[in-house]
Amino acid sequence: MNAQQEQLDWGSLGFGYIQTDYNVRCYWRDGRWGEWEVSSSDMITIPMASTCLHYGQESFEGLKAFRGKDGKVRVFRPEENAKRMQSTSQGILMPELPTERFLEAVDMLLHLNKRFIPPYESGASLYIRPLMIGLGKQVGVKPSNEYMFLMFVTPVGAYFKAGFRPTPMAIMRGYDRAAPLGTGTYKVGGNYAASLRSGELAHSMGYSAVIYLDAKEKLYIDECGPANFFGIRDNTYITPKSSSILPSITNKSLMQLAEDMGLRVECRPVHVEELETFEEAGACGTAAVISPIERVDDLDLKKSYIISKDGQPGPISKQLYERLRAIQYGDYPDTHGWVRIYPDID
User: Mind giving me the DSSP string for 275-320?
Assistant: First the structure.
């Protein structure tokens, strides 16, 4: 549907899709990127033999724009999303979109769709979705010779219905999100397709997400559904290190904020049994920032790790969450230069 800004109830938005006014597209042909094309349609036409459909040559990103109390619009660390998309391109043999072109697309979209940027204190934000797909027509397994990059936006509310409140998560050893030395460190759709069955099963059992263990030994924590995992113990922020984990921009930011707050930071393999020692734990990513964990049920070993004994977020998780959100909205000093500011979008 085509939504009008004045008809949107910002406070009741879910994390879904609402068509906005425009998206932008760019094609890679003959070894180079072309010029931007602006479209008002949210449909694309591609060949049925495209490599994106048969061999998974596609990548995507996710970032957000926020309107501050001062009326300025801020985008959080878009350069990092551009770099991560370039890393994915290297991993699955697609052309890299230069950072400056990525930022051009963000700039264009915000101005073209400014009426869909939610107001300050609405609890909503403008989600920005870059996407790259292989368009080359072939049935042999090899990289495409043509690609499309496109970017669209949609206003969204909270990713988890519970909001910033601890929820239960589950360990299921019968499912893997990604294999070691595979595509786990790249943001490609196949990793998410691999998580759908276990994710839906977990939801049907009352869990908000699955905590995946490493695919090789099933001893170490990898990721938390669509997000990175972290635990807090003895004034230390602990997050897993693995060859299967997508490098989260939110997690990277939280690690820096934890250091700013005087915490030690450890990025290392995290044994599953460490769950019983954590004073706080959470999943972190662009969509939710932090989703605190109430408990983790190991469904195979019939064991439960209680993280939040009073059902509330821990004090360090709360402080990290509030500080990162404040930086995104311009309510806290951006001492690290993370925010790209747009003062002319009213």
Answer: GGG-SEEEEEETTTEEEEEEEEEETTTTEEEE--SSSS--HHHHHH
Structure tokens at 90: 């290297």
Segments in the chain forming alpha helices (H): 51-54, 78-91, 99-112, 189-204, 249-260, 315-329
User: 201-227: per-residue pLDDT in tens?
Assistant: 999 999 999 999 999 999 999 999 889
Q: Taking CA 245 as the corner, what is the angle to CA 240 and CA 248, rounded to the nearest 5 degrees?
A: 85
- Amino acid code (one letter) for 141: V
DSSP string, 167-184: EEEEE-TT--S--TTTTT
Number of helical H runs and strand E runs in the chain: 6, 18
pTM recorded for the entire structure: 0.95
| Nearest-angstrom CA–CA distance, 66 and 334 | 14
CB 73 within 8 A of CB 345: yes
* CA atoms of 261 and 129, how far apart (whole Å): 31
